[in-house]
Every structure is written in structure tokens, then in C-alpha cells.
Design goal:
Elements: H1 2-17, H2 26-36, E1 59-67, E2 73-85, E3 89-96, E4 101-109, E5 112-116, E6 138-144, E7 147-156, E8 159-165, E9 171-178, E10 184-193, E11 196-205, H3 209-219
Antiparallel strand pairs: 1-2, 1-11, 2-3, 3-4, 4-5, 6-7, 7-8, 8-9, 9-10, 10-11
Length: about 220
């Protein structure tokens, strides 16, 4: 009877901590990304070097997943096609999973991404991504709409790990993996909101030749 009670208590604790609400396996995903991209991972000492150049035929896809505390999983794909380079930046156009091109564009300057959401807008650093602190190890302060905020970043075995305050007193953890070209290979964002676990991840993949050609045809119009 005592053993039975202990088991029930353990299950309740696991449930409260979110363990039973986590159908994802982040460790396996990260391990696969690291193995697949061995030798092409961005390390802190690479930041002093020029990024590895990309060819104009480069296209990257992302599998985007959002997990909800009720067990629901939202999954979609999206694509970014490199369409222009200059002496300081690479420029990408964005397509959704139905190959519809949006107004969103990305400018990759060295290893930092800048986003433009409308045709008439300018590329800007997205405040919530704390760009000035993205690759700074240790504690780093940045300005946002509410004043100063702080993040704390460490690096371990190819993974950049950033902790920062979430809603209220909660803490969020973001994990990122980059290629030596500055391409985001993996990003996860884990935390809690109103007592419920939240988790999302974005994992890069190379589209097959037919998809890559379709993306190229659309973005060249």
C-alpha cells in the first residue's frame, strides 16, 4: 500500500512539473542536429572570423513545432531563399509551407539576423530577440520597450544556451545552434506561462531538389 501511495505521489509531482506534458524529446533533436552538422557548427571563437560564404542557390527549410499543455502540437514548415548578397550581408525571402511568398525578409549581417516584415519597412533588430546580447557569453543587458532587461548566455558542445526572465517571475530558456555561415540550425524556447509549460522549436532542413526548384522559381518572379 505504501508503495502504491508513493507511486501516485510521484505521478502527481511529475504532472505538476510538466514531465507528463512534454511529448517532445529535445535532447534527441539536438543530438541529431549536432551529428548532422559536425564540423560546420558556430563556436564562440568563430565570431572573429568571416562567416562561411553561401551560394545564391542556397535554400533552407524549417520544421516549426509548438507544443501546448493540453497535448496539442502545432506543426508547420517554412522556407528561406537567399536571393541577394553584397559586401556585408546576405538577403533571404520567406515562403510559407504552401509556397506563398510573404513580405517578410531576412538580412544576415555576419552572424546577426535583421527582419523586415513589410515591403515598405526597414530591416531592424527584433527587440525580443535581444540581438546585441545574442552571442555574448555571461550576463548581458539590453534595452527594450519597458527599460533594461538581462540575459545570461553559456555555450556547451555546440549549443548556445540563454536564460532570461519570462512572464512574471518565471524564467525561460532558449537553446540555439548555428552553422559557420550564421544560419540558424535549431532553436528551442522553453518556459512556463500561468503555471502551464510552453515549448516551441525550429529545426532546419535542406529541401529536396524539386522543392528547392519550386522555391527558386517563385522567389525569382
Amino acid at each position: 500500500m505504501k508503495k502504491f501511495k508513493l507511486t501516485i505521489a510521484t505521478l502527481i509531482i511529475f504532472s505538476i512539473n510538466g514531465c507528463m506534458l512534454s511529448p517532445y524529446n529535445e535532447a534527441n533533436t539536438i543530438r541529431g542536429v549536432l551529428e548532422k552538422n559536425s564540423g560546420n557548427l558556430l563556436y564562440p571563437n568563430d565570431l572573429s572570423e568571416e562567416p562561411v560564404e553561401l551560394g545564391l542557390d542556397f535554400t533552407v527549410g524549417y520544421l516549426v513545432k509548438q507544443y501546448y499543455s493540453n497535448g496539442e502540437i502545432d506543426t508547420k514548415k517554412e522556407y528561406y531563399k537567399l536571393y541577394k548578397t553584397d559586401s556585408s550581408a546576405n538577403y533571404f525571402k520567406h515562403l510559407d509551407e504552401n509556397f506563398s511568398m510573404s513580405d517578410t525578409e531576412i538580412k544576415l549581417v555576419n552572424y546577426t539576423r535583421f527582419i523586415k516584415y513589410t515591403k515598405s519597412g526597414d530591416f531592424s533588430s527584433h527587440v525580443s530577440n535581444f540581438k546585441e546580447c545574442e552571442f555574448k557569453l555571461g550576463k548581458c543587458q539590453y534595452e527594450n520597450s519597458t527599460g533594461k532587461s538581462e540575459v545570461n548566455t553559456t555555450f556547451k558542445d555546440g549549443v548556445w544556451i540563454t536564460k532570461f526572465k519570462g512572464f512574471g517571475a518565471s524564467e525561460r530558456t532558449m537553446k540555439r545552434i548555428y552553422s559557420k555561415s550564421g544560419i540558424l540550425l535549431f532553436r528551442s524556447n522553453h518556459g512556463y506561462f500561468m503555471g502551464k509549460e510552453t515549448y516551441g522549436e525550429r529545426t532546419a532542413f535542406l529541401p529536396n531538389p524539386s522543392v528547392k526548384q519550386q522555391v527558386s522559381n517563385i522567389t525569382s518572379l
